[in-house]
Amino acid sequence: MEYFSKISFPGLGIDEFKINNVAFHLGSFTVMWYGIIICLGIICAFLYFSYRAGQNEIKFDDVIDYTLITVPASILGARLYFIIFYGGVESFIDVIAIWNGGLAIYGGIIAGVISLILISRHKKQSFFKLVDCVIPGVMLGQLIGRWGNFCNGEAFGGIIDEGSPLYFLRMGLQNHITASKFGTTDMVLVHPTFLYESLWNLIGFVLINIFFKKKKYHGEVLLWYLAWYGLGRFFIEQLRTDSLYVGNTDIRVSAVVGIACFIVALPMIIAFRVIIDKLQKHGQLPEGVTVGIPFVLGIKRDDMFRTKDIDVNVDFNTEEFEKHEIESEEATMKNIKSSKELFEEEPVADETEEKFQITVIKKEGPAEQTEKETETPTETDEKDKTETAAKEAEKPEGE
After folding, report:
1. Hey, how many other C-beta atoms are within 10 angstroms of the C-beta on 54?
2. Are 135 and 109 contacting, i.e. CB atoms less than 8 angstroms apart?
3. Which pLDDT band holds residue 363 (cuts at 50, 70, 90)?
4. How many CA atoms within 13 Å lie on the side-chain side of 205?
């Protein structure tokens, strides 16, 4: 349905203006601003995922595979979550009419996580390493996607009091939704809860990226997201007028889920960091090695160096490093040896050494080759010759 919303932000000096929820028409096909902005958020999330994946040795082909399956699954999950807790559908068209809004982020996250688990198991890749690359992109997509709610003139809060610390962010709004909520066709000043959540996610996105390289285990970024977003969503949800409730109760589903995420995630962040420090202190985990949450919990800890949940500084290949280091050492030793040989003097022969001379006489013809060995005369040889000459002289001449 096409409609206009009158909007203003008096506290920010922005006067009243109109916005149409329809961006343009292509024949009988209507393109909504909500759909365009949601698509923009998905594209930005994909680009961020590609960037982080490249830093963590995840192939771009794998990024494409994950995206092509996870994005449709997340949209489906977000829509089903909304329908389950909101209802109000009378036909199949109502079920698939996401262009009119009606996507619940928690349903999208649940479906997306399930998809990542199944695909990563099929590809035999670390889920926790992967999800740390994906989840900041999800937060980026969320902070952009909330502006789709702005174009629809929805996801706003109740009437804002003048004494509220958030009064300077008050939003003037008038459309058919405010008419049904507040029973008036006049412009009302409300909490711009879409803006609160977008700003909260922006701060979280910046902080996560600042501390990304400080994480101590794969899966910690996911816990940061759950704690940060859950806490903010719990308080923001209290201000909204379009919350999903549990049955006929006054329990806001998103508020309960949000605070539960915070309560569970925060202690896990602290406890897992303490465990990592103790493992490193006792030599059970080398410095610079990044492990996944299953390892921290003691699952398959004996197979540490066989699991894909482990990195050394994420993109650091120790095997290659050691190989190059050994080759470098060998080359250095070879150069040192060559330098020594270059400047080393040849040893002078000892004059007292006995000299041997071998003479080989080769005769032509049938005669056998003879080989004579002559040695430098020694004192013993001279003595033998002298004794032989003396005996010859003593013989009688007639003999």
Report:
1. 14
2. no
3. very low
4. 19
Which residues does residue 4 pair with via DSSP β-bridges, in sequence order? 20
What sign has the CA pseudo-torsion 332, 338, 344, 350? Answer: positive
248: which residues sit within 8 A by CB, 6+ positions away?
A: none
Contact 37, 145 (CB under 8 A): yes
Phi-psi region of 157 (alpha: psi -120 to 50; beta: other; left: phi over 0): beta
Q: 267 Cβ partners below 8 Å, 6+ apart? A: none
What is the signed CA dihedral for 160, 162, 166, 169, rounded to 10 degrees? Answer: 80
What is the residue extent of each domain of the chain? 4-319
- pTM for the full predicted model: 0.74
Percentage of the chain beyond pLDDT 70 is 74
> Which pLDDT band, with edges at 50, 70 and 90, does 306 fall under?
very low
pLDDT at 1 over 50: yes
pLDDT score of 310 more than 80: no
β-strand partners of 334: none
CA nearest to 133, candidates 34, 236, 57: 57
Closest CA to 192 of 236, 223, 224: 236
Gap between the Cα atoms of 328 and 39, Å rounded: 51
Report which of 286, 276, 341, 339 is spatially closest to residue 311, judged by C-alpha positions.
286
Cα–Cα distances (Å) from 47 to 60, 64, 105, 144, in that order, read 11, 11, 20, 14
Facing residues of 372 across strands? 359
CA angle 127, 128, 129 (to 5 degrees): 95
Residue 319, pLDDT score: 58
Residue 304's alpha-carbon distances to 48, 284, 289, 301, in angstroms, are 29, 10, 10, 5
Are the C-beta atoms of residues 200 and 164 closer than 8 Å to each other? no
Residue 292: CB atoms within 10 Å: 23
pLDDT at 371: 45
3-state secondary structure of 104: coil
CA atoms of 56 and 210, how far apart (whole Å): 16
**How far apart are the C-alpha atoms of 169 and 158, rounded to whole Å?**
13
Report the range of poorest mean pLDDT among 88-97, 183-192, 220-229: 88-97
Task: Sort 79 into a burial class: Cβ within 10 Å, 0-12 / 13-18 / 19+.
Answer: buried
